[in-house]
Amino acid sequence: MEGITEGVNKMSVSETQKKNRIQVSNTKKSLFFYVNLSKRYMQQYNEVELSALGMAISTVVTIAEILKNNGFAVEKKIRTLTVDMRDDPGARPIPKAKIEIVLGKTEKFDELMAAEAEQNGDNEEQQN
Questions:
Q1: Can you give the pLDDT of all 128 residues of the chain as single tens digits?
Q2: How far apart are the C-alpha atoms of 96 and 102, rounded to whole Å?
Q3: Are residues 22 and 41 in contact, defined by beta-carbon separation less than 8 angstroms?
Q4: 56 close to 23: Cβ distance less than 8 angstroms
Q5: CB-count exposure of residue 4 (10 Å: 0-12, 13-18, 19+)
Q6: CATH no. for residue 71?
Q7: Which domain holds residue 98?
Q8: Tally of domains within the chain
Q9: Which residues on adjacent β-strands are paired with residue 98?
Q10: What residues does 48 pair with on adjacent strands?
Q11: Is residue 2 part of a domain?
C-alpha cells in the first residue's frame, strides 16, 4: 500500500487526469450525452479535450463535428497516436489507436448556450 501511495505522490501533473478531459466510449453513453457534457466542460474551462481508443475514435470525431457545425466549438488541436495496452499484467502489449481532440469555445458560445437554455425552459413549461 505504501508503494502505491508513493507512486501517486511522485506523479506529475501531465500523468494525472486532466480536469477538462472526457474519455469517450462508444458503448457506455449516448452520443448526445457526450455533446452536452462537452458543452458544460467548455462553459467551465473554456476548452475540452475529447479522448478515445480504438472503435470509439469515430464517436469522438462525430461529437467534435456536431459541436463545430452548430457553432459551439473551434478545433484547437488534434493528436493521433498508438498506445500499448495489456489485457493482463504479464501479457504482451497490443497496440491501439488513440485520438485526442481539443476544442475551444467560439465567440458565439455563450449566446448559443443562453438561447438553448431558454428553449429548454420553454419546452419544460409546455410539458407541465
A1: 444 444 444 444 444 457 899 999 988 899 999 999 999 999 999 999 999 999 999 999 999 999 999 999 999 999 999 999 888 888 899 999 999 999 999 999 999 999 998 888 765 555 55
A2: 20
A3: yes
A4: no
A5: exposed
A6: 3.30.110.20
A7: 21-126
A8: 1
A9: 53, 81
A10: 103
A11: no
Return the C-alpha cell found at 17: 487526469
Cα angle 96-61-102, degrees, rounded to a multiple of 5: 90
Q: Integer distance in angstroms from the first to the last C-alpha of the chain?
A: 54
Block residue for cell numbers 474551462: 45
Query: Which grid coordinates belong to 55?
Result: 472503435
Q: Is the pTM of this model over 0.85?
A: no
Residues comprising the chain, all counted: 128
d(CA 32, CA 63): 8
